[in-house]
Design a protein that fits this description.
The structure is a homodimer. The first copy, chain A, is an alpha+beta fold. The first copy, chain A, is about 25% helix and about 25% strand. The first copy, chain A, is globular.
Chain lengths: ~475, ~475
């Protein structure tokens, strides 16, 4: 294993519950800050596999590590205690730095302050009601590691703030129409005509708003520090017996049980979001500055396609039709390429994520941001309703893993590994390591398929059984 | 059974393959025209149930019937021959006229003409290649029957035209990039980099374009004749071994097999399309003319909600959050009400359909059309891949049926009816009738639940087995 780069660190204090760290890495300055250091740890464990064909050593992990955060760093044993899970990260050959970031920790949601004067009595009922959740997050950076680092250090705080703003609604049997306790009883006609909102709808809303808030913070921070970049974000939160998975980007989370493999997220790429992106260009053609064509064709058109009837589709179409090629159709397509090669405006492989506020198409003034959304899609898994088995796990990983392993292959690896390692306290860590090993072209691996991923990969394995136990013990 | 209204009919000829009928109904003039009368029949069978609690007789069916179409009318025995299916329509108490319309028939797709000069040789290969499909459609009108009648008489022609424009691509092994036969062979680098488009993608595209084209025709026709109204559209097309179901509105199609009930469409209502509609109002706030609020609240806000923190959600949210009520939040909501009562701009219960080009919010200039889409969602059922059983059917029906019967209840009725009536040549007709009876509050009916629908109802029962046989015999 190689040593990381030389890092100069400096610790400071910003506000009462924030820890500020300024450090330089390869002469590039970074500012990181933690909120609530007591119950949150950013994690990054450099894990380098031995690869049969490619002799290489890990490139630097651009993350706070032991060298930087004296006394505050977390190794995976600690992670196991916090959230019974693990993150393994591998540096592959795609970019100079590891651009994956991970974070996990407890989420302590305090009673909200506002409205306290208005209805002291109702608030008293839940004054002592603290909610505790668990939080895991993976961020896959692009255009540099800055956005991913900021996200790993900010998103949990945004989420905590958003949850604290609605926590009084969450602890009620049903979130009340009025947060500040002007309680309407179920027999009141006003109540009867109200839509039934559930506590989980507030958590979903909090996640959606937290992603937006975090995106704004990243935009401001990057601009202030003259840095650039963006990242995908995949977040899992265990709260009140449910697992919420929020995804913006192309990472993925799946549930693996003995007889079931269930996707808990879906990917947002220029291909999967084609219609939304084309629709935006249809509504605001000026966003393309006359440089791109909104229409999709099966391949890039060439001059000798002019006048021919060729296959195409527009924003309203899931199917295809034919059109006569005009000169404007020869422009570069808004979405080009297939599969892993698909690019938005020739630039970006994902259509949702955080950051990228300054990102423009090379040599133009065309911005990516209006096409790129920070809103996540949230999936809810009602863990309390599952008859949990000891070996039910959620596997979260950045795209590098899924490029070479299917959901079913990962499930097979999980099922083949866990039963034989029941006594190992680190078996979930070992499983995460093993999953990463399986992407490094080891022909003797359990899949025997020897596929190689050259991307950074981060994996969380979250055993649901221990989460369920926490929940029922609460 | 009651007799329909007095109808004055007049038959004319418009063009070579069009049949024009002008008639008056209750002094209101209607113009109907058929294209390709040889292989297409609009159908409308007035079927009135005896209801235990509500003594009523059928209101007039505003459709071409025997009285109008001398010699050309279709009764359901004929329908059975055409598409092995049936339409039953009941007049309930919601509106003065039956606003449901149905159509079914053969879809004869001829070889396309254009490009013939360019590559005679390639065209020769498929010069004799006529495709024949089957077409079933249900249209549920609102604001009068005019749009539904126009749709029943137009959409199949639009679809045929759209299919004929791409038929050469459909009969190829894989639709070629160039329609006019500048054939690129699979070893050509151009071909290799092309996305793989399937023949079914062309049918989906043709359906999407046909709905748009039909919508434009209806807009022009209604404007020219000073009429108003709109309709939902649910279309099933059996072509090349596949069943395509295109839906714009709140009708529904399901597949019922011995061990399976599969939805073949999903409904488009202000509730199911909330985010798209709110998003449009976010992008174009002027569409609400300051009269509506884009935000969703659990109930209509009142003056005394001002200043309170209340539950709300905006276009980017699937979850809920709280916000402090401002004066502008007291406006009427863009989408209001729940379930069957949900309305778009206080006016319309569906968010997709045909027509309504002139529809405005009462006493305002606010148009419904930009929020209302004519684009259908298309589902493909690969019938050739199913191991078809004699009693596998597709049930298509307007919303009146699904208001009182769930998919599972309909499936139970289908499974309880068909096995005991194997010898009856009209058993699918009888099944459709029975389904409609089951919505009329007959406590002794097979469901025993006695629910009553007061809406017009149309039902098609399409036995897949005979379709599969046609397909394999082709």
């Amino acid at each position: 294993m190689c040593k990381g780069p030389e890092v100069e660190g400096e610790l400071g204090q910003r506000g009462t519950s924030q820890l500020l760290i300024n450090f330089k890495l390869h002469t590039q300055p970074f500012s990181l800050f933690w909120q609530q250091p007591c119950c949150y740890w950013p994690i990054n464990i450099m894990y380098v596999s031995s690869r049969p064909s490619h002799e290489h050593c890990g490139r630097p992990c651009c993350v706070p590590r032991e060298d930087v955060l004296t006394g505050g760093a977390v190794v995976w044993e600690d992670v196991s205690e916090v959230g019974s899970s693990l993150s393994g990260i591998i540096n592959a050959e795609k970019s100079e730095f590891n651009e994956d970031q991970a974070a996990c920790g407890q989420l302590c949601i305090r009673r909200c302050e506002f409205g306290a004067e208005e209805d002291q009595e109702w608030l008293t009922l839940c004054a002592e009601e603290f909610l505790t959740g668990h939080y895991w997050a993976l961020f896959d950076g692009h255009g540099g590691p800055a956005a991913a680092i900021l996200a790993a250090n900010t998103l949990h705080s945004c989420l905590r703030r958003q949850l604290e703003a609605v926590v009084e609604g969450m602890v009620a049997l049903q979130p009340p129409m009025h947060l500040s306790g002007r309680c309407v009883c179920p027999s009141d006609p006003q109540f009867v005509e109200e839509k039934g909102i559930r506590a989980e709808d507030l958590v979903i809303g909090a996640l959606e708003n937290a992603f937006q808030e975090c995106d704004e913070v990243i935009g401001r921070e990057l601009e202030a520090s003259g840095q650039v970049g963006g990242c995908t974000a995949l977040v899992a939160v265990f709260l009140q017996g449910k697992l919420y998975v929020a995804n913006a980007g192309d990472s993925r989370a799946i549930l693996v049980r003995k007889d079931e493999v269930r996707p808990l997220s879906s990917e947002f790429t220029p291909e999967t979001e084609r219609q939304r992106i084309q629709q935006l260009a249809f509504v605001y053609p000026e966003l393309l500055a006359g440089e791109f064509t909104r229409l999709e064709f099966p391949r890039r058109l060439k001059g000798d396609d002019l006048g021919q009837k060729v296959l195409f589709r527009d924003h309203h179409m899931r199917g295809w039709s034919y059109k006569c090629v005009e000169k404007s159709d020869l422009k570069y397509p808004l979405i080009h390429g297939q599969g892993r090669q698909a690019r938005l405006l020739g630039t970006l492989a994902v259509s949702r994520g955080l950051g990228d506020h300054q990102l423009r198409v090379l040599d133009t003034n065309i911005q990516l941001k209006p096409f790129l959304l920070s809103v996540p899609q949230v999936t809810v898994l009602d863990v309390d309703q599952l008859e949990l088995q000891e070996e039910d796990v959620v596997v979260m990983a950045t795209d590098g893993l899924w490029d070479v392993l299917s959901n079913e292959q990962v499930a097979r690896l999980v099922r083949s590994f866990l039963p034989g390692n029941q006594e190992d306290p680190h078996r979930f860590s070992e499983l995460a390591k093993m999953l990463i090993h399986s992407t490094q072209g080891k022909d003797d691996g359990p899949t025997g398929e020897g596929q190689v991923s050259y991307d950074d990969i981060s994996v969380f394995v979250i055993p649901l059984h221990s989460q369920g136990q926490r929940s029922s013990g609460h």
